[in-house]
Design a protein that fits this description.
The structure holds two protein chains of two kinds. Chain A is of the alpha+beta class. Chain A has three helices and four strands; from the N terminus they run E-H-E-E-H-E-H. Chain A has one domain (2-84): Histidine-containing Protein, Chain: A (2-Layer Sandwich), CATH 3.30.1340.10. The longest helix of chain B has 30 residues, at 36-65. Classes of the chains: A alpha+beta, B alpha/beta.
């Protein structure tokens, strides 16, 4: 399992557009990718669940990646977060 | 005339007839079904149809409002495909043996409630997106078309609320304004209205819905958030005028944004903007100014009940410099006098404040106050491209004294190991006839001149600019003023300094050619005039 932490700096937090990007990217990998925030979690292929976490600017989240292609998935998710959030 | 007050989400105005938006409301009934598998197949078919409609809307939005805004429809597709949402729907169908319409409506209620319950107003607004996709699936199930038909003349669309897909599928040429009783300024509908440049007002309340009917005349003013039912002639004319001005601005923007300020024969100048507060930076960027040519620092003092601290000033200057991202920002040091002061300055009443202890004179007699501002300015200089200018210069000694204080401040900052830029340009305002006449002696001391034409006019023509009766004697195009500016320009260039104009004359397009022929390097005008002056510059040919 791979894990990384990330602090959201986008003013609107994980809003609709980035949630869509995350869900799209997560579907590219066989690994299960999960966002954790304050004891709640969302599987990244589910756009409504990601939006349901209500991650705001300044929130610190943990991302876990488990599966066969976790290394590539971690790299892709990190890049996506840094570029969009 | 009846006025309803809401919130304008796009600043534009329109007058015209009302069209009440009719949604073919589909009543969802809970119906028991025997064959749940068949119901699941119906659901799949309806989802596929909804997704194909959304792809079409996406393509249309892509053309009309650009990719960033079109993406919402891509996300709508993802929401329709969302696992949790689908599990909720299929679960209801199979567990309760009910129709797909009911299952979709029930899931939509749950999910939109989840968003509505969030504390974040942006996320609350996502409830509308859930409702929008659900209504689409339900309409597809019922094989109904949820578009309203619009034909004939352009109208003001009035509705309880508008879904993003409804907003974008309305024929834009037939829409004068969007006006809704509910809704959020974070809604994608509001965002789309802004992108499509259509006046939009939200949150007018239920009373508004009760009073309107198709064909009524109304004015929608997105600037003030006012919706005026049954307006009088004057109100309609005012709205038309606002609409015309806004259209002209957008035409200019479309034509001139990102274009150089260059004449037909290749002479380039800078067009900067004048601002009086950090809040105006948005309009500077919106109007595509090359920089800020006059930042009036007075507001920091006048809005305060005591001298603003170095830290307060530093923050405001830093924010301005950072927002302008490396573009030039020229901040004028405190320019106040007995006619315009805050109580804590405790300035004596003067017989003739225009000729009194003001601007640089006041600063030089209160060096501690002046040095606080200079320290804040130099500290902020590390965060952008700063120029500092001193107002009301009439003597060489004033410039020398101000520059000496700058040196002191820089020395102190070096000693305290505080970062600042060594490339801050220092300049003076040319707004007294004296400064223009001795500009050959002032130019070697500074990097630039900026002509303040308002004061230069009043001092040169001895005309009080507050006195309306003097208007006929106060020719702002007076040859004396133009000659003084020309003298200053010649002397600036002879001493490797540049010269700009930041007074009202800078925006006077009758004089643009004259200024360019004098060799003026920069014109600084109100943000809303930037593109008009750019248009003028681009039309001139100085070789003729």
């Amino acid at each position: 399992m791979k894990t990384f932490e990330y602090t959201v700096t986008d003013g609107l937090g994980i809003h609709a557009r980035p949630a869509g990007l995350i869900a799209k990217a997560a579907k590219e990998f066989s690994s299960e990718i999960v966002i954790l925030k304050d004891g709640r979690s969302a599987v990244c292929t589910k756009v409504m669940a990601i939006m349901g976490l209500c991650v705001k600017c300044g929130d610190r989240i943990t991302v876990t990646i488990t599966g066969g292609d976790e290394e590539a998935a971690e790299k892709a998710m990190r890049e996506l977060f840094e570029a969009n959030l | 005339m009846k006025i309803f007050k809401g919130k304008g989400v796009y600043g534009a105005a329109a007058a015209g007839k009302i069209s009440v938006f009719k949604r073919r409301d589909i009543q969802v009934k809970r119906v028991k079904v025997d064959d749940t598998d068949a119901e699941l197949l119906r659901l799949e078919a309806a989802k596929a149809e909804a997704i194909s409609q959304l792809r079409e809307i996406y393509e249309r939005a892509l053309k009309e409002v650009g990719e960033a805004n079109a993406q919402i429809f891509d996300i709508h597709i993802m929401m329709i495909e969302d696992e949790d949402f689908n599990e909720a729907i299929t679960g209801t169908i199979t567990a309760q043996s009910v129709n797909a319409e009911y299952a979709v409506a029930a899931a939509a209620d749950n999910f939109s409630q989840m968003f509505s319950a969030m504390e974040d107003s942006y996320m609350q607004a996502r409830a509308a997106d859930v409702k929008d996709i659900s209504n689409r699936i339900i309409a597809c199930l019922a094989k109904a078309d949820c578009q309203s038909e619009s034909g004939g003349e352009p109208v003001i669309i009035c509705a309880d609320d508008l879904a993003p897909s409804e907003t974008v599928t309305l024929d834009k040429d037939k829409v004068l304004a969007f006006v809704t009783a509910h809704g959020s300024s974070f809604s994608h509908t509001a965002i789309l209205a802004r992108t499509m440049n259509i006046p939009a007002i939200i949150g007018l309340g239920d009373d508004f819905l009760r009073e309107i009917k198709d064909g009524d005349m109304a004015v929608a003013d997105g600037f003030t958030g006012e919706f005026i039912l049954d307006p009088d002639e004057k109100t309609i004319a005012a709205a038309e005028e606002k609409r015309r001005a806004d259209e002209e601005k957008r035409e200019l923007l479309k034509k001139l944004k990102g274009k150089e300020n260059i004449t037909v024969d290749g002479t380039k100048i800078s067009i900067f903007a004048n601002i009086g507060s950090v809040d105006n930076i948005g309009s500077v960027l919106l109007n595509d100014a090359d920089g800020i040519g006059l930042f009036r620092s007075e507001f920091l003092y006048l809005e305060n009940s005591d001298y603003p601290t170095e830290e307060e000033q530093f923050k405001a200057y830093k924010r301005t410099l950072e927002s302008m991202g490396g573009k030039k920002v020229i901040i004028r040091t405190l320019d106040i006098g007995a006619d315009k002061q805050a109580d804590y300055f405790k300035l004596d009443k003067e017989e003739n404040p225009a000729l009194g202890l003001r601007a640089i004179r006041l600063c030089l007699t209160r060096p501690d106050m002046f040095k606080t501002q200079l320290r804040a300015l130099f500290r902020a200089s590390a965060y952008g491209n700063l120029g500092i200018m001193f107002p009301m210069i009439a003597n060489v000694s004033e410039v020398e004294a101000a520059l000496e204080l700058c040196e002191q401040v820089k020395e102190e900052l070096r000693r305290d190991n505080i970062d600042f830029s060594e490339n801050v340009e220092l300049g003076i305002m040319i707004e007294t006839p004296a400064a223009a006449i001795i500009s050959d002696r002032l130019a070697p001391l500074v990097d630039f001149f900026s002509v303040g034409t308002n004061d230069l006019t009043q001092y040169t023509l001895a005309c009080d600019r507050q006195n309306p009766k003097l208007e006929q004697f106060c020719d702002v195009h007076h040859e004396a003023i133009l000659r003084l500016i020309e003298t200053a320009a010649k002397n600036a260039h002879a001493n490797n300094a540049w010269i700009g104009i930041c007074g009202e004359l800078a925006a006077d397009t009758e004089l643009t050619e004259t200024f360019l022929r004098m060799g003026i390097d920069e014109l600084s005008v109100s943000p809303s005039f930037v593109l008009r002056v750019r248009e003028k510059v681009r039309s001139l040919d100085l070789s003729k």
